[in-house]
Amino acid sequence: MFKRLKSALGKSSESLENQPEERLYRKGLEASRNPELYMRFEVADTIDGRFDMLCLHVALVMRRLKASSDGRSADFSQNLFDIFFADMDLTLREMGVGDLGVAKRVRKMSEAYMGRLTAYSHYLDAGDNEGLAEALARNLGRQEEGVRDCDRQCAHFVMAAAAKLEAAEIETLLTAEIDLAPIFTPQAGK
Predict the structure, then answer these.
(1) What's the total number of domains in the chain?
(2) What Cα–Cα distance (Å) separates residue 180 from each residue in 23, 41, 92, 121, 173?
(3) pTM for the complete prediction?
């Protein structure tokens, strides 16, 4: 994988593996695959469901980076985005999608991600749990209308995860020393 990413990002395999953005992305990817999230919030364990869960995790991290006054955060966030979509490119190619199809799909995926980032950030910034639940129902639950109880529970989980990220020292993100697993693990009974 690192060979494909290095060509996409113009870096050596060794430097990518040691890059904090890559390590943080891997931590977010691992946290997004927690089976408990899929079961508790009734997210389909499909390619689309996994993509949407990963979008949620990366969006929350990028939202925290954007809120930082540290001058390194903007470049870090852009590199994280680039790594995310280089990984999506690689994943599509491994699934057998051809070169022309990959470019179109990655563009659509990046647009979908940006829409999710914007919506989630808007509702989080406004403290609008119901609006966030509606956005999560559309994206994670693939609900065309209506909000289920699990969507509301997911919105509470996302609000709590965002608060934990906001409380984290920015340096722990910029060095990828943060442990994302406890941030993105639902609390029992909530």
Answers:
(1) 1
(2) 11, 19, 26, 19, 9
(3) 0.88
